[in-house]
Amino acid sequence: MAAPYLMEIAAAAAPAPSTNSTRMVVLMGGPIAAGHIDVSGCGLQSRGWVFQEGLCSPRGLYISRRHGLWWDCRTMVDAIDASEPIMTGDTDHAFNPRTLRRSFPQAEPPANSLHQNLSFNWYDWIMSYTLRNLTRQPDRLPAVAGLASYAFSLSGMTYAAGLWKEDILRGLTWRRGNSGYAERAPGNAPTWSWASVTGPIHYDEFFTMRVDHRGEIKKRPKLDLEITGTTIHEVRPGTFGNVQGGEIEATGILRNAATMLVGTGLSADWYLDLQPAGEENQFLESCQVLRLAMAYRNKQNSKPQVYFLIVRKTGEGVNEYQRVGRGYIELRGRPSPKSELPEQGIWEQAERVTLTLV
């Protein structure tokens, strides 16, 4: 049995014969409804540091006010006063850590498909993780360092400030949550990493770029961003924790953001990461749209979408840009086996530019 990793205990004050009062720990619980264990209200479930513990641990022992003493692993959930165990997959209940833990790969040595599985699962985990709270915002990367280290040990992929170099294009497509603008997170995470902002982040559902068994994109349109180098400056090398910045060297197509996104009639959906100083439309005049890749939603008859970053010059290095947003354009029509989509009209007069993202 692994060491307990999630515990909620009610504390209450009660009189004692020898003193005026003493503080006693009281375990409070009640009968568990058959087939339903809900820990969504557990305080520790909202904490960022608990996330990787619940995900990486093969089993857990819990004490809570609502459910008393109970246990879970990858195949079952059992409680001290339950009539019978709940077999995983047999009953729909709301225990999120169990669901996440089952998605965590257990392979030794890694299988051929592990790169692909990890690169796709990782961003689902990060979406769940960023919904949680951190007392110290600079802990945004350290609080998943153990998870990143374990994923690295299984896959051999190269970690890059919360993203993976082998799947870097997909990693760049995060956006802030729907609740409002994010804020810049303390620390020096590069602006292209989700760790550079506070609050929840989102990756689109069903997202695929036709990744092969190595986690690499098999087919890329000629207009896709070509990444030539990724450099990360870790505060403590090899710890998967905080960084002192990072750069992506790339060659891609840039277009003025206001020209592309305002009043063109394109079916575009976009988000700015942080609240601009003035109106969004005016802010976009000083920004560029950097095309990332054409992607497909993994469902029948889906239209392809071109994902892009909204970037802005830093005013420091030559062609040095920082990320300020993300979006996509939904293309009309579907590609045929012998031709590419007619994107020339969208990106006409655009030239490939060598740039640095920081």
From TrEMBL:
Tree of life domain: Eukaryota
Name under which the protein is recorded: Heterokaryon incompatibility domain-containing protein
